[in-house]
Design goal:
Radius of gyration of chain A: 34 Å
Number of helices of chain A: 30
Radius of gyration of chain B: 17 Å
Number of strands of chain A: 11
Number of strands of chain B: 0
Helix content of chain A: 55-70%
Largest sheet of chain A: 6 strands, antiparallel
Shape of chain B: globular
Oligomer: heterodimer
Shape of chain A: globular
Distance between the termini of chain A: 88 Å
Structural class of chain A: alpha+beta
Strand content of chain B: under 5%
Chain lengths: 799, 196
């Protein structure tokens, strides 16, 4: 056998080294008529072809990567291993500076597409984050054999629990340390990133007491606009979760939100304060883990540490709610409650106590109640149980409904606080999901229908109300409004309730205009006006009625402007202004009324500017600013009034530009810009201010161009264009945003034309034209975008 | 295990060619692996998959991460370790297979049972071990190459160094043995089909 095999082997090895096509000829020669030999070699060659990757990956992972050189770094020691990769301490090996870093390297042998994309996703997520309490991403690369790695700030410290124990920190510093860690999680959430794996070993505390959040290995980006960034099979994530810190929704495999991190932080704080784990497992079977995490409430913290009695019991209880909807709405709120505790203020965790205790009682006792009921049923024939069950069901129903409505109520309190848009969206969404559930059971109850309609309207407002802070999700807003419309129209038919219906028509109209659906928008305005005029005939001097009329007139005017009906616009602007004047005359000076009046003046001003009646226009704009400022003096902080004041100043700047006074225009625009920048910084999720900031840059560019300062003009045009492109990408349904991109493109072209750079001018006009043509083809062009298109076409012909 | 003893035995074996040193070394390496395994088993971990992975891992890292031993000595150390790892993995696989046989399980995917990262999903370690034993009878050098490369994860160059043969030879031994083993495993119908 041995000798025979040596022959087979040597021929086989030769053959394997030869190109495929030459093998047959080689075998023929080498085997020299020994058919058995030849058959043997052929069979092995066939096996080789089929073998694929057989044995190519070692049975276990080969040597670790200590001592490897990765780009300019050299790994020194293995400091951690996870499911996907290992983390090494490393130094930058340049002579210039010896920087210590941590390098995460994907594990060899698990380099599948999925793991790889997950790994790169973590790198991507880290690139988004820049916070003093999050370990920073420094660099990234690929090894010579194709393994991706990334370089992070090296954090030398101990896990937060160890740190607290070793230093024997008292309660207050523990809480303060925890708050610092929360700020990092909060920051990640503001960037729409959920960590999903918060536990002591992922929060290191450095020697000087600074927490550093690590390991975004299973973090998730909650950005619906970037699904391509997320690896497809999140559910296949094989990494074992630590059941000690996992939330019920993670154990059940349900949707993970920022509330998941709230829960894990709650577990962590529980442990830091009581020294005990919140989850206590008897065994580690999946069933037991699920039971403990999803059903067993943690032992009351104060029974483990007396210091915690009262507020901290409540705070931990709220963070550790099994139902994500009952927890703190955000890490921010969780942290704020701890701060309130530290400063001796009443904490929020207590405010719903009575209500949720009741509902919790019902939930907890449902099983017992039903068991008792079953016994009574057999004894008494069912009468007692049905009433009892019905009562319990009714009570629970009412509790949930109250809770949902109180959440929606809270929403209004948030509405005029700058910077609150994203939280409001979550809040309303949460309340809505409660109501949606309830609606299934009570769809013929008019009160339910009303509540649900309100909820959909509020949701629509946050998603994309045309004249309020919103998330720029116009399609979604229209969708929510239409859902409400079904309910409102039904209520109007059955109960004659049409006041709220008319308001809804106006809201829907606003969103439709944003989406470029002007005909339908105007039809909505007409329906609203019909209802309101009927009411007006009955109660001519009621401020509410007048306000509604004014609102409808304004809305109508906006629609008519969009389709280029200037006479109609002027008419409805006048009507709106006189309606608001009458409201104020009747003695109502709420911030909303003041804002309505200021807006009416401002719009008169812009129409008159268009009509080139500059002096009268300036008067109206001046009045707009005066009214807004008066309102602000009376109301204090009020976002809508501040917006109107700024918008009036911007209109004034536009006017100056139009009548050829660029210096004044520039001065005003720069003032406007400064205000918008502040607002954007305060609320990065807000869409409307961003688009106005972009428009102001565009206008500044035009003003500089008027002064023949093409360098500065180019700067502002470019800034405006970049911002507008981002906005248009974020909200593809917003036809106005697309049109504005085209406007910016045309402005760039014009600038090059003025400089005599004909080629570049043509190129930019061409870009503008194709953007506009797309809008036109989609049937979403408005009068402004058509005017730009005409202009662009003329220019292209002339050049 | 005293690191000094192991180093000394390694030197005796690799430099002085002392066969007895190897005989003394083998149980030490095996004991170390078993000791690590025992430590893992005693720790109350409930996820067996994870546990076994970690076991093999740590044992492996412990064995090779001897920074005070020069590469050549470490290379010989690998040689011993490769056999041990083979034995531990295959024993583990056999016991699992025995357990599962009753339950009507067909070919056991060992790597799944072990959760060993880097192993292919469809290599049947028990069948591979039997085939390797067969191969060893008529070509011990080839069997050794497979052991070092597959079980210890050595590169072609490293394998060449441990075995004191040329890399070209290792390559030829490797590719021909791989074809033979693959055919053998398929012939017995135990190995899973190759990738398309």
């Amino acid at each position: 056998m041995n000798e025979r095999w040596q022959r087979v082997k040597s021929i086989l090895a030769e053959a394997l080294e030869r190109p495929f096509a030459e093998r047959a000829a080689y075998l023929h020669e080498a085997c020299a008529g020994d058919t058995e030999l030849r058959r043997e070699v052929e069979s092995l060659l066939l096996a080789d072809e089929d073998a694929g990757e057989f044995l190519n990956q070692p049975a276990i992972e080969p040597a670790n990567a200590v001592g490897w050189r990765l780009g300019p770094y050299r790994t020194l020691e293995l400091i951690g291993q996870g499911g996907m990769g290992a983390v090494y301490r490393a130094v930058r090996d340049d002579d210039e500076f010896q920087q210590e870093v941590a390098i995460k390297l994907i594990r060899r042998g698990v380099n599948s597409d999925y793991v790889r994309s997950r790994f790169l996703y973590e790198r991507q997520i880290l690139a988004f984050l820049n916070h003093p309490h999050i370990a920073r991403l420094l660099d990234g690369g690929t090894t010579e054999d194709g393994l991706p790695y990334f370089v992070m700030e090296f954090v030398e410290g101990s896990a937060i629990d160890e740190y607290c124990i070793l230093r024997q920190l008292p309660l207050r510093p523990r809480l303060e340390l925890f708050l610092k860690a929360c700020s990092a999680v909060e920051y990640a959430h503001r960037n729409l990133i959920v960590h999903r794996d918060l536990k002591p070993s992922n929060i290191l505390i450095t020697e000087d007491g600074t927490p550093k959040l690590l390991d975004f290995g299973i973090a998730k980006l909650l950005l619906p606009d970037h699904p391509h960034l997320a690896p497809a099979q999140t559910s296949l994530l094989t990494r074992a979760l630590t059941p000690d810190y996992a939330s019920p929704e993670q154990i059940r495999g349900e949707a993970v939100t920022t509330a998941t991190d709230v829960y894990s932080l709650g577990v962590l704080l529980y442990e830091l304060l009581t020294g005990k784990k919140a989850h206590r497992f008897n065994t580690h079977t999946p069933g037991e883990i699920e039971r403990v995490v999803c059903e067993v409430e943690a032992v009351r913290p104060s029974s483990l540490n007396r210091e915690l009695a009262g507020d901290l019991d409540q705070i931990l209880g709220k963070a550790l709610e099994k139902d994500p909807g009952q927890r703190y709405g955000s890490v921010e709120q969780f942290a704020a409650d701890i701060r309130r505790y530290l400063t001796g203020q009443p904490v929020n965790a207590r405010s719903h106590t009575l209500l949720y205790r009741v509902s919790k009682f019902v939930k907890r006792r449902k099983g017992v109640v039903l068991a008792v009921a079953a016994i009574i049923l057999t004894l008494l024939g069912g009468i007692a149980t049905t009433t009892r069950e019905a009562r319990i069901a009714q009570r629970r129903f009412n509790d949930v409904r109250k809770l949902a409505n109180s959440l929606i109520g809270e929403h209004d309190a948030f509405a005029s606080i700058p910077g609150s848009t994203a939280q409001r969206g979550r809040l309303v969404q949460q309340a809505l999901s409660f109501l949606d559930d309830l609606y299934q059971d009570a769809s013929d109850d008019p009160q339910m229908q009303r509540e649900l309609a309100v909820a959909y309207e509020k949701l629509g407002d946050v998603q994309g109300r045309a004249d309020g802070p919103n998330l720029g999700k116009t399609e979604a807003a229209i969708d929510s409004y239409r859902k409400s419309l079904l309910l409102r129209e039904a209520l109007a038919k059955t109960n004659g309730e049409d006041e709220a219906l008319s308001g809804l028509y106006v809201r829907l109209s606003g969103a439709l205009k944003v989406a470029g659906q002007f005909t339908e928008a105007i039809a909505c305005d007409r329906k609203a006006l019909e209802i309101r005029e009927r009411r007006m005939a009955k109660q001519p001097n009621r401020p509410e009625t007048l306000r509604d009329m004014a609102e409808s007139y304004s809305s109508m005017a906006v629609g008519l402007t969009q389709v280029g009906d200037w006479n109609g616009t002027l008419l409805y602007r006048h009507k709106a202004l006189s309606a608001y004047l009458k409201v104020i005359e009747l003695g109502s000076r709420t911030p909303e009324d003041m804002n309505g009046l200021a807006l009416a003046y401002m719009r008169m001003g812009t129409i008159l500017t268009r009509e080139k009646q500059y002096d009268e226009a300036v008067q109206n704009l001046q009045r707009a600013m005066d009214v807004a400022r008066q309102g602000l003096r009376e109301a204090g902080r009020n976002q809508p009034l501040r917006m109107t004041e700024t918008a009036a100043l911007r209109s004034l700047a536009n006017l100056e530009l139009e009548r050829g006074r660029p210096d004044e225009a520039i001065r005003h625009f720069q003032a406007v810009n400064a205000i918008y920048r502040q607002m954007v910084a305060a609320d990065p999720d807000e869409f409307r201010v961003r688009s106005m900031l972009a428009a102001t840059h565009h206008r500044l560019g035009q003003a500089f161009l008027q002064k023949k300062d093409s360098e500065r003009a180019l700067e502002d045009f470019e800034t405006g264009l970049t911002m507008r492109r981002q906005l248009a990408e974020r909200n593809p349904a917003n036809a106005g945003a697309q049109g504005e991109v085209a406007e910016s493109l045309a402005a760039m072209a014009e600038l090059f034309e003025l400089r005599g750079e004909r080629e570049r001018a043509r190129e930019w006009y061409g870009k503008a034209k194709s953007t506009l043509a797309q809008l036109e083809a989609a049937g979403r062009a408005n009068s402004a975008s058509r005017a730009i298109l005409d202009h662009v076409n003329q220019k292209l012909n002339a050049l | 295990m005293a690191g000094q003893d192991v180093t000394g035995l390694l030197l005796d074996w690799s430099q002085a060619g002392n066969r007895q040193a190897l005989d003394a070394l083998t149980p030490l390496v095996y004991d170390e692996l078993r000791r690590l395994a025992g430590a893992y088993l005693r720790r109350e971990r409930h996820d067996h998959t994870l546990q076994s992975t970690a076991l093999v891992h740590e044992a492996y890292l412990k064995l090779i991460d001897q920074r005070n031993v020069k590469w050549q000595n470490r290379a010989h150390f690998f040689g011993v370790a490769a056999q041990m790892i083979r034995r531990i993995l295959v024993d583990h696989a056999r016991s699992h297979q025995a357990q599962k046989r009753g339950a009507g399980a067909a070919a056991l995917s060992l790597d799944e049972a072990l959760g060993v990262p880097g192993a292919q999903k469809d290599v049947n370690l028990v069948a591979l071990d039997d085939a390797l034993a067969e191969l060893e009878k008529f070509d011990p050098q080839q069997s050794r190459v497979i052991e070092l490369r597959y079980f210890a994860g050595l590169s072609i160059e490293e394998t060449a160094e441990v075995m004191s043969i040329s890399p070209a030879t290792v390559k030829r031994e490797w590719s021909t043995a791989r074809a033979w083993l693959f055919r053998e495993l398929n012939r017995t119908g135990i190995a899973a089909p190759a990738e398309p």
